């Protein structure tokens, strides 16, 4: 993506005063709230410094925000209400529809779609930034969900390693064989807090069975016919006592159980590989199991959302994001920040191919992007997610049958979809 002035109208609404648009050095200021910590913060700051050195018209300030990505929605919401907000903020893909209701969010349709680089993005990346036919943000980071497994525990249990194309019946049986209460080992795990970390792991099962998160008519959930079977798989794991249900947010405990050598299989993304490598786990990665024989997983793209601080700053913000999304920069961001390449062009770069060859399992996460899907960008999704999260936890803890949990979930989620937005 050649950096250049963003063409087309960015937003019909007038932004706030542009008095703050130009710094003392005469350059247009772009305020970036990136929400990154540790290695991610270092990686984005290195890229920002590089951009600032390369030209004299724009200066990106990446010091703002003061919060990590998990708290960015609340920070941005408060900033919009106060009328003092950044030019760019890191917004989770699941939160984009809610944020995009603000008239201060810049419509990027004319500046991103239709350009030469747009088709290079994975389909899941494009889907994650589109709402009602418009591009409401630029892609930021990307991951996919696959299964990491402990080869040592498999050998000790005399269980064959899993292979691509395995079934959910295979998974349940394998988890049971890997579970040993005497040694304190579990076959697998699932977050038990009811938050989005709990929920997004269920969607590949729903999609694989032919369901959807939201029905085509938009008035009800699209998994009433298949949700009971998907939840039934979790019920089987719970009945076998082969699933470690993590009671704390962030899935930190189940990650530590896996890295500590007491868990056979864990659904996770590429962000976990550095800790697994540091923990000296003898591991490998396999695509998720399937009911239908058709590979299916979920990607969780997050976004750079642009806010209207006047046309000059909006154009400068988009120019920076166009530069940042170019494969030459995207590969540096993926390597430094621990995400997957946003496009096939980035995945084909020699830097990524060398890194991928050195990292066990990373090619599996990248290949999964060919069939990965994303959660719908819909204002009611948070309410649907809450209802599904409660259903999943109820089943995992044996408090409800799959049929009962689905019935309650459907009532709550359908009600949320009927609220005018």
Automatic annotation (TrEMBL):
Pfam families in the cross-refs: SBP_bac_1 (PF01547)
Transmembrane segments: none
InterPro entries named among the record's database cross-references: Bact_solute-bd_prot1, SBP
UniProt-recorded name of the protein: Extracellular solute-binding protein
Organism of origin: Streptomyces chrestomyceticus
Lineage: Bacteria, Bacillati, Actinomycetota, Actinomycetes, Kitasatosporales
